[in-house]
Design goal:
three-stranded antiparallel sheet; 2 domains; SMI1/KNR4-like; alpha+beta; about 35% helix; about 210 residues
Length: about 210
């Protein structure tokens, strides 16, 4: 684990704030999380989670931003806010975020932090791109570039294609539409609305920039 002490140096420079009670997760907790996701957590993320779960980066005079690796409707920079802790009783815990976004993120993808707009920074643990870090747009703005009608019209088109969409939520409609048109996209349909941040969690941390407020 000592090979990851560069993370401590980096976060000391960026600044950290802990605004909630916290205790470090055990190896058993981390193993359980890996089992749920279906893959091993990257070592750098394990190190981070055991020391910095629940922190916000930056200080009173600055915040932290990360550059996106591809065009995104939200701009070129992401502002990660709170990095979720592995605490079962906390409303901001990784477990709670998993439950919240289970049906909205690709299988094996873990939400690890939010941004001020309600979007998520995600770590692909056992999905199509293991080890990579992504930004997830909770508004799924990409959909409006591919379908200009109403959600009712989209639902009707899904029905016409043989998909029972009568009880679908808006998000269900968007995901079903993506799967129906999967051959039109440059990534798996479940990854629509997700934008690349970094090839590894370590690269993501190294990309963080301290910006004055």
């Amino acid at each position: 684990m000592t090979t990851h002490t560069w993370i401590d140096d980096l976060l000391s420079t960026l600044g950290t704030r802990r605004i909630r009670a916290w205790s470090p997760p055990s190896d058993t907790d981390l193993a359980c999380l890996a089992t749920i996701l279906g893959g091993e957590l990257p070592d750098e993320y394990r190190y981070f989670l055991q020391r910095y779960g629940g922190v916000m980066l930056g200080d009173e005079d600055s915040l932290v931003k990360a550059p996106l690796g591809e065009p995104c409707p939200w701009g070129s920079l992401v502002s990660p806010e709170m990095f979720y802790p592995l605490l079962r009783i906390d409303p901001y815990s990784i477990e709670e975020q998993q439950r919240t976004y289970l049906a909205r993120l690709p299988r094996g993808v873990l939400p690890i932090a939010d941004d001020p707009g309600g979007n998520q920074v995600c770590l692909d643990v056992a999905g199509a791109f293991p080890g990579t870090v992504w930004f997830w747009d909770h508004e799924q703005r990409w959909f409006r570039d591919h379908f200009t009608g109403s959600f009712e019209e989209a639902s009707s088109k899904l029905e016409a294609a043989g998909i029972d969409a009568r009880r679908f939520s808006v998000h269900d409609i968007i995901r079903a539409w993506a799967r129906l048109h999967a051959n039109e996209f440059d990534r798996p349909s479940d990854y629509m609305g997700m934008y690349r941040l970094a090839p590894t969690f370590g690269d993501f941390l190294r990309s963080l920039q301290k910006v004055p407020t």
